[in-house]
Amino acid sequence: MSPNKIIIQKAEMTDAAVLLDFSRTTFFDFFGPLNDAANMEAYASVAFTSQKILTELINANSEFYFAMLDDEVVGYLKLNFADAQTEFQDEKALEVERIYVSRQHHKKHIGQQLLDFAVDTAVKKQFEYVWLGVWEHNANAIGFYRHNGFEVFSSHEFLLGDDKQTDLLMKRVL
Ligand SMILES: CC(C)(COP(=O)(O)OP(=O)(O)OC[C@H]1O[C@@H](n2cnc3c(N)ncnc32)[C@H](O)[C@@H]1OP(=O)(O)O)[C@@H](O)C(=O)NCCC(=O)NCCS
């Protein structure tokens, strides 16, 4: 077994508190230093609440997965199917809405194992493509996706508080 082989574990309703804490912490860790604090709080006060996480967990077309390394949560993934996709809602497509690895575990192929899991899920379901949205200034994630065969095919506006940002939409055809 390679040294950083993770266990990918589906998050259940009972994991809501852990999931909320991890997702909020990683969001602020990565995007806090690059954005206005009030806009971060405005966005997080809607996106990262107990109620929102429970609604997402209960949705049969959304799935969360933890990346576990030595019993510690080191990353997570959110997949959207069918009408849970934030755009297109194509039955033959899978959206990777979120993929985060905690900073101290970057560059250890943990993100890769999560993304491979997402792509394998879509292949098993005989989907046509995997897609995602990524902030145009997130050069690190864009590099990671390009390295994995994703290409930009469109863009959309994303509102962080009152800051209008541009997300690139990237897809990998299967
Ligand atoms: C993007 C992210 C998930 C990548 O995870 P990671 O665990 O650090 O990346 P990995 O170690 O799995 O990288 C896997 C491969 O991609 C390559 N890669 C990673 N980042 C890269 C980059 N910026 N440019 C080119 N290649 C890159 C690695 O070199 C590695 O290649 P190899 O298999 O040939 O050795 C992680 O950096 C992260 O959590 N970022 C913050 C949150 C975020 O931005 N999420 C995306 C929001 S849309």
Characteristic terms for this protein:
single chain; 174 residues; alpha+beta; Aminopeptidase; 7-stranded mixed β-sheet; 5 helices; 34% helix; globular; binds coenzyme A
Describe what this molecule looks like in 3D.
This protein is an alpha+beta fold. It has one domain: 3-Layer(aba) Sandwich (Aminopeptidase). Helices cover 34% and strands 34% of the residues. The protein has helices at 16-31, 37-47, 50-58, 110-124, 139-147; strands spanning 7-10, 62-69, 72-81, 93-101, 129-135, 151-160, 163-173. The chain has a seven-stranded mixed sheet with strand order 1-2-3-4-5-7-6, with helices on both faces. A hairpin with a 2-residue loop joins strand 2 and strand 3. Helix 1 (16-31) crosses helix 3 (50-58). The chain is globular, with a radius of gyration of 15 Å. The model has no long low-confidence stretch (mean pLDDT 96).
- CATH class type: Alpha Beta
Low-confidence spans: none
End-to-end Cα distance: 28 Å
Number of strands: 7
Order of helices and strands: EHHHEEEHEHEE
Q: How are the strands of the biggest sheet laid out side by side? A: 1-2-3-4-5-7-6
**Strand residues, percent:** 25-35%
**What helical percentage do the residues reach?**
25-40%
Number of domains: 1
Listed once per kind, the bound small molecules are: coenzyme A
In CATH terms, the superfamily is Gcn5-related N-acetyltransferase (GNAT)
Q: Please tell me the overall pLDDT.
A: 96
Helix tally equals 5
**The biggest beta sheet, please?**
7 strands, mixed
Radius of gyration: 15 Å
Structural class: alpha+beta
CATH architectural name: 3-Layer(aba) Sandwich
Shape: globular
At CATH level 3, the topology is Aminopeptidase
